[in-house]
Amino acid sequence: MDSLLSICVGVGLSAACGFRVFVPLLVMSIASLSGHLALAPGFDWIGSYTALLAFSVATALEIIGYYIPWVDHLLDTVATPAAIIAGTIASASMATHMSPFLKWTLAVIAGGGAAGLVQSGAVLARGASAMTTGGLANPLIATVELAGATLTSVLALIVPVAVASALVIGAALFGRKLWRMVRKRPTVVGRAAKLAPPPPCA
Fold first, then answer.
1. Is residue 200 part of a domain?
2. Number of structural domains, the chain?
3. Going residue by residue through the chain (202 aa), what tens digit of pLDDT does each one get?
4. What is the distance in angstroms between the CA of the first residue and the CA of the last residue of the chain?
5. N or C: the chain end with fewer CB closer than 10 Å?
6. Angle at which helices 71-94 and 49-65 pack, to 10 degrees?
């Protein structure tokens, strides 16, 4: 049961990394230093004051960067791989009482996958905003993402099962919608057949 809860906490924190890379790591560091979060062996460095300072500075720079035009697009180019790495680390740091192989397998698939999925959705939302509003709505999206990262990180520590369940449902709905979009999209052969002129009458 403890292992299942740890996995749920890790997946929730990993998903939060998809909104902001360093906010969940900062929350983890604070929770560990205050005695509210137990980290897996080998990840005690997250709960150090050095890590707390580093995560605080990185979080502040990341938050400010997403409110600066063009800088937010530059951050998006590196945010996806960074979010996947951070999500993997966050998930692995919570996987206690597991073999290293199982721990890192779950961390990469569940943690990295959750972070990558959320980050991809955030990038698409910002891209749509740039196309429809010329980037004017990007600060609003940045605020929503920051709130999502903070709220998801805190809830992952308080109600981890609920957060993990919501992520699974959200991923299923997103995958279903994506599959419907792919099925409705006409194929190249089909479009060519529709555009081809009718054959001459004999």
1. no
2. 1
3. 467 788 888 899 999 999 999 999 999 999 999 998 989 989 999 999 999 999 999 999 999 988 887 787 788 888 889 999 999 999 999 988 788 888 999 899 999 999 998 998 888 887 787 788 777 788 888 999 999 999 999 999 988 777 777 777 776 766 677 677 677 765 444 554 455 555 565 4
4. 76
5. C
6. 150
